[in-house]
């Protein structure tokens, strides 16, 4: 496959299903070598095999993005397999429905752990790798319109996506001199 991303290396978190899988497939169709990062090995290997069968190039790296030590090792493994990382699509996230009156701290910790803390860990590890390798690149964090405005039944989710947007803005400012774009979609 060839296209606009020929020769680029792209990491996709949560690349074993949904938006992440679709993004991994699109990146591969555009010529990128794709690193699929996810917890569920069976699903991740199926996506990898499917992309490779269709003429793309991908590898699966099992990774619980909630564990910063595992994230660091996974980013190093991705760089070892393909070389310098050009693109991060930071997609892994949880969604939960509960109003302020019904939401609990267990939901709070679960959503903030994955949607904010893990997003930050993956972004930071990837950015450090890009800076060390003097690799210009692009980091894309999956946000949501919910991060701009509260909603009655998803307060924790809205707050986490506001955090994603804020971290993205801060990262964009510090990484711009390194020629690393950081955006949220």
Structure report:
The protein is of the alpha/beta class. It is 48% helix and 17% strand. It is built from five helices and six strands. Strands 3-2-1-4-5-6 form a six-stranded parallel beta sheet, with helices on both faces. β1, α1 (18-29) and β2 (33-38) form a beta-alpha-beta unit.
Mean pLDDT: 94
Q: Percent of residues in helical segments? A: 40-55%
Structural class: alpha/beta
Rg calculated over all Cα atoms: 16 Å
Order of H and E elements: EHEHEHEHEHE
Distance between the termini: 26 Å
Number of helices: 5
What are its keywords?
single chain; 185 residues; alpha/beta; globular
Q: What's the structural blueprint in terms of helices and strands?
A:
Layout: E1 9-13, H1 18-29, E2 33-38, H2 41-53, E3 57-62, H3 68-82, E4 87-90, H4 105-132, E5 137-141, H5 155-175, E6 180-184
Parallel strand pairs: 1-2, 1-4, 2-3, 4-5, 5-6
Helix pairs in contact: 3-4, 4-5
Short description:
The chain is α/β, with parallel strands linked by helices. The protein has helices at residues 18-29, 41-53, 68-82, 105-132, 155-175, and strands spanning 9-13, 33-38, 57-62, 87-90, 137-141, 180-184. Helix content is 48%, strand content 17%.
């Amino acid at each position: 496959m060839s296209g606009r991303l020929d020769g680029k290396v792209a990491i996709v978190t949560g690349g074993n299903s949904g938006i992440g899988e679709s993004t991994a497939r699109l990146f591969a169709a555009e010529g990128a070598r794709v690193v699929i990062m996810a917890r569920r090995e069976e699903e991740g290997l199926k996506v990898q095999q499917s992309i490779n069968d269709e003429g793309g190039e991908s590898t699966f790296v099992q990774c619980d993005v909630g564990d910063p030590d595992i994230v660091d090792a996974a980013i190093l493994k991705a760089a070892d397999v393909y070389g310098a990382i050009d693109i991060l699509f930071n997609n892994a996230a949880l969604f939960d429905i509960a109003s302020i009156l019904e939401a609990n701290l267990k939901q709070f910790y679960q959503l903030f752990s994955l949607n904010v803390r893990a997003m930050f860990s993956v972004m930071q590890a990837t950015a450090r790798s890009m800076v060390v390798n003097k690799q210009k690149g692009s980091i894309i964090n999956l946000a949501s319109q919910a991060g701009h405005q509260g909603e009655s039944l998803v307060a924790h989710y809205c707050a986490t996506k506001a955090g994603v947007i804020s971290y993205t803005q801060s990262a964009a400012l510090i990484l711009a001199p390194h020629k690393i774009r950081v955006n949220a979609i």
